[in-house]
Write a structure and sequence with these properties.
It contains eight helices and six strands; from the N terminus they run H-H-H-E-E-H-H-H-H-E-H-E-E-E. The strands form three sheets. It has a two-stranded antiparallel sheet with strand order 1-2. The chain has a two-stranded antiparallel sheet with strand order 3-6. Strand 1 and strand 2 form a beta hairpin. 13% of the residues are buried. Bound molecules: zinc ion (ZN). Zinc ion binds next to loops.
């Protein structure tokens, strides 16, 4: 991967994160003016939180720490009651990040381990590999899939199957949905679509890709490779 892609993405992430935090902060300042009690409560919570940290790092008196926490909890309840009285608008006090998983930092730290968030991974894939395919992909989803393009007449000689192409497509769609629903299950096998051009392999692959993107998964596009008469469009593989 080209390092400049990651660098420019991190600058973009930094900007959107700061924007979200600045907007929330401005709203908070407005609230403080309208509701001075909120400002007082926040000041008290901050002071108590500092005292708690000091106590933990210096004397470690558990009873004192517990008393401080009880006071903080009581103040938080008081604050919540005021915010509740303001209504839904009060939610603006929290930054509205595009990605709630990484708070627009691009990275997630869990159990002392830091890893790249899927949102950042997907942006890199889109820029580095998916490029122009992404716009076509977005238009191809289960909502726009038209089953009527498939014949409802069974013809065993022509299709080598005793069910109609439409019925067959419904079965394939069911398999696709099962694959999406069980994507995180390691026992869930990968999917490989094969067949001649024009049968809907790319479309179905895009449908799956879109559903996985909605679930916060990453999608990497491979260009089609031609093997004899069979075109392999996508190969879904959990990476
Ligand atoms: Zn993220």
């Amino acid at each position: 991967m080209d390092n400049t892609t990651l660098k420019s993405l991190l600058i973009e992430y930094d900007k959107k994160r700061k924007n979200a935090e600045d907007t929330a902060n401005r709203y908070k300042q407005d609230l403080y003016e309208k509701f001075p009690d909120l400002l007082e409560i926040d000041k008290k919570i901050n002071t108590l939180a500092i005292s708690t940290m000091k106590e933990i790092s210096q004397n470690g008196d558990k009873e004192l720490v517990s008393n401080l926490n009880v006071k903080i909890d009581a103040l938080k309840k008081e604050k919540d009651a005021i915010l509740k009285s303001i209504g839904k608008e009060a939610e603006l006090i929290h930054p509205h990040y595009e990605c709630s998983k990484c708070s627009d930092t691009g990275y997630i730290t869990e159990n002392n381990q830091t890893r790249m968030c899927n949102c950042l991974k997907q942006r890199i894939y889109d820029i580095e590999y998916n490029k122009s395919n992404m716009s076509a992909l977005k238009k191809q989803n289960f909502e726009t899939l038209n089953l009527f393009v498939y014949s409802d007449k069974a013809n065993i000689d022509k299709y080598n199957s005793d069910i109609s192409p439409r019925e067959n497509m419904k079965l394939i769609i069911k398999i696709c949905h099962d694959f999406i629903d069980n994507f995180d299950d390691i026992e869930n096998k990968n999917l490989l679509f094969t067949g001649k051009t024009g049968l809907g392999k790319t479309f179905l692959s895009s449908c799956i890709a879109n559903e996985l993107l909605k679930k916060g998964k990453t999608v990497l596009y491979h260009t089609a490779s031609v093997m004899l008469d069979t075109v392999i469009d996508y190969h879904f593989r959990k990476i």
